[in-house]
Amino acid sequence: MNINFIKQDKQLIVEITEEIDHHVAEKIRRKVDDEITRYMPRKTIFDFSRVTFMDSAGIGMLIGRYKMMRLIGGSLEIVNAGSTVSRILEMSGINKIIPIEKMAM
User: CATH number for the 17-40+52-101 domain, one of 3.40.630.30, 1.10.10.10, 3.30.750.24, 2.60.40.790?
Assistant: First the structure.
């Protein structure tokens, strides 16, 4: 699995470099949960610049991480989602609870 974690200034940046389906979403969930628990960031940023496909399992994974970050007093953000993934995020309504930015900060 291709996930890169960048930790800086109490932010955890999660770079995902593959399609997100049911099997991959579960692996991502476990790895991200471990990093959040270990690092306790104030903000977790999912960088989707290299994600070309995501199904409903990816939406569920994001909502779960959103809830986890809220429990520890932090926030979650999505950046660099391409047009296909952006459409899925908008259709799911996730953009109403999780900020989606065009470019990483």
Answer: 3.30.750.24
The residues near 65 (Cβ < 8 Å, ≥ 6 apart) are 29, 32, 33, 36, 44, 46, 76
Prediction pTM value: 0.93
Placement of tokens 């047009």 in the chain: 83
103 band by pLDDT with thresholds 50, 70 and 90:
low
User: What are the domain boundaries of the chain?
Assistant: 17-40+52-101
Residues in the chain: 105
